[in-house]
């Protein structure tokens, strides 16, 4: 079997994703956007079982998939979903001294991810997760 194109293109696709996220968030660097991305992905991941998280990860492009599963304590029990304000507090608390996440970080990451995934696959996976997972990845005010 030949190497899948998604792996051959992974670096270029991730670079395009990060440029898109910097533009969407109006942050000034990819370093700032990366921390925001990592925070949003981990805040979401903390609310899933291992099986749910793997299913979700499989809907992401390869580098986003790797970021989503990196530094994961798979023994930690899932946290409950909470309101958007509480989720944003967690996003901002991630690497607190180096985190410049915007007030709408979840929405900005959501909008950018949705432009870089297969929409049908992403929606299909979200339908298998708790209802709050779909709410987390809704475009809300950015639609």
TrEMBL record:
Alphabetized Pfam families for the sequence: DUF2267
Matches recorded under InterPro entries: DUF2267, DUF2267_sf
Taxonomy, superkingdom: Bacteria
Protein name (database record): DUF2267 domain-containing protein
């Amino acid at each position: 079997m030949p190497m899948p194109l998604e792996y051959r293109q992974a670096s270029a696709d991730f670079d395009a994703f990060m440029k898109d996220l910097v533009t969407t968030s109006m942050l000034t660097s990819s370093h700032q956007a990366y921390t925001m991305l990592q925070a949003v992905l981990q805040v979401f991941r903390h609310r899933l079982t291992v099986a749910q998280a793997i299913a979700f990860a499989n809907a992401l492009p390869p580098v986003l998939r790797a970021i989503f599963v990196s530094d994961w304590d798979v023994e930690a029990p899932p946290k409950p979903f909470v309101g958007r304000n509480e989720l944003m507090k967690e996003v901002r608390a991630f690497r607190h001294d180096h985190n410049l996440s915007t007030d709408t970080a979840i929405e900005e990451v959501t909008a950018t991810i949705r432009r870089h995934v297969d929409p049908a696959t992403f929606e299909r996976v979200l339908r298998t997760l708790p209802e709050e997972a779909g709410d987390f990845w809704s475009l809300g005010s950015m639609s």
